[in-house]
Amino acid sequence: MRFIITGGSGFVGRHLIRKLHTLFPKTEIHNIDINQSDEIVGFSIYHDIDISDKSSFSSFKFDDDDVVFHLAAHIFHPQTPYRTKRTKYFDKLNVGGTRNLIDCMKQNNVRRLAFLSTCMVYGVPKEKIIKTNHALKPNGPYGSTKVAAEELLNNFAEKKNNHVLIFRPGLIAGPGRFGLLGKLSFLIKNNLPIPMIGSGLNRYQFISIYDCVDALIQFIELDFPSGTYNLGSKNPPIIKDLLTSLIEFAGSKSFLMPTWGYGVKTILNLLDMLNLTLMYPEQFLLADSEFVLEISDLEDEL
């Protein structure tokens, strides 16, 4: 058995590879990515492969007893293209890369895969507690391409003896995470005011990177179960209390600034249309929503 990680140089991948190396020191770990991270040199075997280019897979040979962790994806970052080009950008890797991976797995009779999707597949929630059977109505191309990737993997899972485990995590937090959490850390570190979209009285669920990695490893330890599960922390506090705790923990002089949610989202949407993006629609449209994932089935079954 070998562990094959797509996107192993990313935030989740680096943590997963280190944990796998600790738990299974004699098992080969292969990192399929377009760059190598210094943090995991010595913990994995690196393969310079772009999974969105099917011909790129010719340099890698799968074994039929491989276990695949599919983490590679385009996410939101400073290099995310303008709104009109985002669908193609996300589709190329998130859908095309997934399709190429499945094709290569089929050719080599590889049957076991765990996939990290996203809670953004749900869009603005219609229920106070979001179950995995909630309607999938994402607010943009990132969530939409994750839905499409899930469909490809569910079709793959229908074949006898194939095993696919899909996780839909909330916002993953932990050391080395940038993006919105990096901006928040900057404000707190520099004692600057922290604007909230809305009153901050809503709950928005996070998950620790360590809990996320532990969930992925359950795929191995529970003998490769199949299914779709939400990932999130238990009993999430309201945003206002969460941010207040962070400010106090950091010893910062920052303070919270509630805003008119509808007005702020309208402005952010206009800025995004003008290619002056401060936040992406899939981020700010959920910011003042009650967003709590149902995780009881995860606790019961995994």
From TrEMBL:
Gene3D superfamilies: NAD(P)-binding Rossmann-like Domain. Coiled coil: none annotated. Residues 4-232 form the NAD-dependent epimerase/dehydratase domain. Belongs to the NAD(P)-dependent epimerase/dehydratase family. This is NAD-dependent epimerase/dehydratase domain-containing protein.
